[in-house]
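Shapes recur. One chain:

:::
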Amino acid sequence: MGLLNKADTGQYKKAGSNSGLLKYITQKKHGKERSGSVQDKAVLDILSREYAKLGAFQGLIIEALKNSSEEIFEGLLSMVSSFAAVQKLSQKRCLVLFDAEKDKELIGFHLAKTVPGNTIFSFQAQNPQEAYSFLKPYL
């Protein structure tokens, strides 16, 4: 926990007034539009919430080596709840979101070592739409 406390360097910044929820994404399939999955909606919701709190933000995808996402989720949540948000992505993957001022490499290394798992992707985004485009291949 000591390293994570050192990485937590500041308070959340307030975003501008344009931080409303994203519109639900639709896809065309067989000539008809259909709603995105419940998983996509949950990811869009957390991206929107974190953008409203932080403005620009960073994220990590942690993939478990041994445990399920539920076990990883609980472990990650207990480690980062003071400065980050966590969302399950799949059976073995979780997303961790935090402000742009923190050291994502240090946080990713420590979290992956503790869970145990691998940090398979990291990003920095200026808005929820940009973040979603980065995350789409991992959903």
